[in-house]
Design brief:
- There is one protein chain.
- It is globular, with a radius of gyration of 16 Å.
- It has one domain (37-194).
- 38% of the residues lie in helices and 6% in strands.
- The protein is mainly alpha-helical.
- Helix 2 crosses helix 6 and helix 3 crosses helix 4 (100-109).
């Protein structure tokens, strides 16, 4: 599995990553900040949810902003298994099926499984897998159904990683144990995104 590269030149303090986004990450004091990303992102050593880079449908994250968002998602998802490289998912599937590549590809193409393309590789957030490690959690499938028509996979993964007001400031990935509340938050955000 390829090593996850972290470069110091991804984000320059005090610079906007894009004309459409603010250059700050949401506060997550409950998560470690091994990369120093929070401090690097706004140049002042602090970040808060109000200044989080919004992922707006139709305006994909690019360049340094996308790199910083990937770093953020990697840290936010780490308590729930992190981000798995597609080769790792294929290895796990190989225990259940003789055609793991086809099964994984079908799940990704049909958007039954959330995947991220970053730096030339495909990454799968592990939080979406049920206890068996291969099927998608029902609560995640419901959120994919609610937000999938409006958000691309990157935006949907970002939605799971950042604090959400409907969840009392918790990130959706941290509220997987409350499917009804998670679905309520997804429906509310779908309503807002539709305008």
């Amino acid at each position: 599995m390829p090593a996850y590269p972290l470069r110091d030149d991804h984000v320059r303090p005090g610079t906007a990553a894009s004309g459409r986004h603010e250059s700050a990450l949401p506060a997550r004091p409950d998560l470690p900040d091994p990369t120093g990303l929070r401090a690097r992102f706004d140049g002042h050593g602090s970040a808060d949810a109000a200044n989080a880079p919004a992922v707006t449908t139709g305006w994909p994250a690019i360049g340094p902003l996308k790199d910083a968002q990937f770093d953020w998602m990697r840290v936010a998802f780490s308590p729930r298994g992190g981000l798995l490289h597609s080769e790792e998912c294929q290895r796990r599937l190989r225990q259940q099926t003789d055609q793991p590549v086809s099964r994984l590809a079908r799940a990704i193409v049909s958007r039954a499984l959330l995947s991220l393309s970053w730096d030339g590789d495909t990454w799968i957030p592990a939080f979406q897998f049920a206890e068996d490690g291969l099927s998608v959690r029902p609560c995640c499938a419901q959120v994919f159904e609610e937000l999938g028509p409006l958000f691309d996979d990157w935006e949907l993964a970002w939605w799971f990683a950042v604090p959400n007001a409907w969840l009392g400031g918790a990130a959706p990935v941290d509220r997987l144990d409350d499917p009804a509340l998670l679905l309520h938050a997804a429906r509310a955000d779908r309503f807002i995104a539709r305008g």
